[in-house]
Amino acid sequence: MNDESISSTLNKNTKNSWLLLIGIILVGSNLRVPLTSAGSLISFIRDDLGISNALIGSITTLPLLAFALLSPFAPKIANRVGMELTIALSILLIIGIAVRSLSGTPFLFAGTILIGLAIAIGNVLIPGIVKMNFPLKTGLMTGIYAIFMNLFGALGSGVSVPVSSIGNLGWRGALAIWGLLTLVSLLLWLPQLRKQKKREQEKVKTDKKIVYGAPRLHGRLPYLWVDNH
C-alpha cells in the first residue's frame, strides 16, 4: 500500500468518525428536549384540552414508564437488527413529537408514549455505540454528547413558552417545531446505516470463505486427529 492510499484511508476514517460523532450528538440532543419542552407548556395544554391536573401530570410519567419497560429489551433488539439500525428506529419513534401535536387528547398521550419508547432505546444504546467506536476516548465522547443532551433539554424548557406565543403556533406548534431537530438527526444518521450494511456484507463474505475455503478430503472437511495416548 503506497503513501497515497494510506493517506486516503486515514482521511476517510477521520471523516467517518466526525460523521458518527455529529450523529451521536444530534441523537443525544433528542433525548431530553421532547420532555422538557412539554413540561414547560403543561398549563397551556391542560387549559386548552380541558383535562385534570392528574391526567396532564401523566405526560411526564409515561416516558419514565416506557423507559422502565423497554430498556431491558433494547440490547436484545440491537443484537438482532444491529445497533445503528435500532438507533435509527428510535429516531423514527420520535415522530411522536408530531403525533402529540395533533388535535385531541388521545394523540397527545399516544405521541408521548412513542417519545418515551424512543428515549428508552437511545438512553441505553448511545453509551454502547460510543464505547464501541471510541474505546480510547469513551469518557470524552460521553461527556460531549451529554453536554448537548442537557443543553437542548434546557433550550426546550426555556424557549417553548416564548415560541408558543409567536403568531398562531400555540403549544402544538411549539412542540412540533422540535421535529425539525429529529429530521436533521435522522438524515445525518443515514451514513451509519450504510456502514452497518457494509459491515454485515463483509461478515457474510468472511463466513463463506471460512466454510467453503477450507481444504476438503473426498468431499468432506478435514478433521483433527487427537492422540489420547
From TrEMBL:
Residues annotated as domain Major facilitator superfamily (MFS) profile: 16-229
Transmembrane segments: 18-45, 51-70, 82-102, 108-130, 142-163, 169-190
Gene3D superfamilies noted in UniProt: MFS general substrate transporter like domains
Entry's Gene Ontology cellular component terms: plasma membrane
Membrane-topology annotation of the record: Multi-pass membrane protein
Location in the cell: Cell membrane
Domain of life: Bacteria
Alphabetical list of InterPro entries matching this protein: MFS, MFS_Cyanate_Porter, MFS_dom, MFS_trans_sf
Keywords for the protein's UniProt record, in alphabetical order: Membrane, Transmembrane, Transmembrane helix, Transport
PANTHER family named in the record: 2-NITROIMIDAZOLE TRANSPORTER, PTHR23523
Annotated protein name in UniProt: Major facilitator superfamily (MFS) profile domain-containing protein
Native species: Oceanobacillus sojae
